[in-house]
Amino acid sequence: MSNLFKFLNGNNYITVNRSLAHAIGLDAAIYLSELLDKYEYFKNNNKLVELPECAGLWFYLEIDVAEDRTCLSRFEQKSAIKKLCELGWIEQVNKGLPCKRYFQINER
Prior knowledge:
Layout: H1 2-7, H2 18-24, H3 26-44, E1 49-51, E2 54-60, H4 63-70, H5 74-86, E3 90-95, E4 100-105
Antiparallel strand pairs: 1-2, 2-4, 3-4
Helix pairs in contact: 2-3, 3-5
């Protein structure tokens, strides 16, 4: 029974708005939810960063961390990011060594 509690732990859920998932697709809605969660973490801990040649404040989310937290593969993440960028809801750049994916939430 203890394994069941491990899987059903209250910290292991993904929150997704159903209306949003219908509008933009489940993968994009899940990824946006994770990005918003990560943004809040970085913002609340004063860890948003300025990037050279990029306006505004940014945060990063590694592919393997996102896969662990969302169950979205690298390909599914790439597709979700593309959709969210096309909608103008986020911006994404690759920077640094080793290279990281940085994001900015467009709050307009």
